[in-house]
Amino acid sequence: MKALLAVLALAAAAPAHAQLDFGRIIDLGRKAVEVAPRIQEATKEYTVEEEVALGEGISAGFLGAIRLHPDERLQRYVNRVGRWLASQTERADLPWTFGVIDTEVINAFAMPGGTVVVSHGLVKRLASESELAGVLAHEIAHVLKKHQLSAIQSDAGWSAAATGAKAVAADQIGRRGGDVLGLKSQLANAGVDLVKDGLFLRPLDRSMEYEADRLGVVVAARGGYDPYGFVAVLTMLAQVKPDESGASITFSTHPAPADRLAELEKVMPELEKYARQPQVEGRFRQTVK
Q1: pLDDT tens readout for residues 4-34
Q2: CB-CB contact of 129 with 97 (8 Å)
Q3: d(C-alpha 89, C-alpha 82), whole Å
Q4: Helix (H) or strand (E) holding 117
């Protein structure tokens, strides 16, 4: 919670001169593409620091539009479950932060660098902690595989802007003498604009969603939860009508639940031995009223 609020405070306090000149950025990006295509390819590999900075900007833009749910106990609970799951992965050292947004929309999002938000509209439809773990593990899997970064970089306009952003930052670093924060500031501001432009909220490729489903159930099982908790979530979503209040975004940004279940069935037999792991229904019900 403190990390998310700090991001918002920093974004609000950013001076006008720190804002990106996107006209110049895109122009520099086009020149970089024309002159040295290999440079553009190199920029597709972000360092962890750059990935986190971009994610912080996206988080600031996202949470500037949708507020966090006011139940602090619920926020701590979801954060504990999410952090525990993330600690079982190969990217445990990321600054993982989890939160619940105050909306009836049925959805969850992951930002580059380890920030994950789930809607209250989805949480209150779940029946156990293992189901919550399945949802969070799916989003964690997106971060592990850097799916959001891949989607952002596949957009031609963003690719040019990102190349230009690094060129501008490199120019500033050269003038100021090692201003590493210059690059982080550029990327964080770019993340805010990704939300404003709607690019970040576009659907991911279906193959990415299926991969996150497969990896997510493994992460949940590794964390000690029944991996079939996520199967229960998809089964619940399959029963929700697409035109039902709060459900339209989920169905427009994800493959149909029935298709996801069909893909997941291919790997679930391998996890059958973990099906007896806890559902943790009591603790979930006490927290999620």
Answers
A1: 444 444 344 433 333 333 344 334 344 434 4
A2: no
A3: 11
A4: strand 115-119
